[in-house]
Amino acid sequence: MHAILLFLEYRIYFKNRRIIMKNSYSQKQVAAIYLKYRAGLVHYIQLKINNHYVAEDITQDVFVRLIEYKELLHPDSIHSFVYTIARNLTFDYLRKSYKKREAYQYIYDHIPVSTNESEEKLMADSLVELEQTLLSGMPGQRKRVYQMHRFEERTIPEIADTLQLSKKSVENHLLLGRRRMRAFLKKCM
Q1: Which one-letter DSSP state was computed for residue 8?
Q2: How far, in Å, are 49, 67, 100 from residue 45 at the CA level?
Q3: Looking at the predicted structure, is the pLDDT value of residue 20 above 50?
């Protein structure tokens, strides 16, 4: 009710422009339109933007715009006129929102993230040292399979040919080596 009273004040200020309602009939007419369409407009706008508070703000802007165009009001076209204003203001809001989102995405994609490369390199080196420590404790064949696959980047068939093993044996050695390495690194971290 308080919002209606504020809305119906004799003088309404909008964006540093003073709009003066000329007679009480126009004021009553706009008040009646406000009461009739407000809830429906809030719902209509909220369906488009999924934000109730912003929908209420846009609805208020619709009625301020309606007061600006009160000379164009005609009883037969009020419904269409109100919803056209609402649609246009909603599209303006969405357009600004998408542009803002695109700007944030551009910044996120193109501005380099500050990283401490020396710290990352130190961590990577210490992980490799831990890996080498565990690798030295593995059985001979498993150790060779793991090293060839991990550090020499050889495929399973290449390792099988080099070590004169079946592909299944290489897969099993690799599986057991990775499993042990994973468990060891989890304990360290």
Answers
A1: T
A2: 6, 19, 20
A3: no
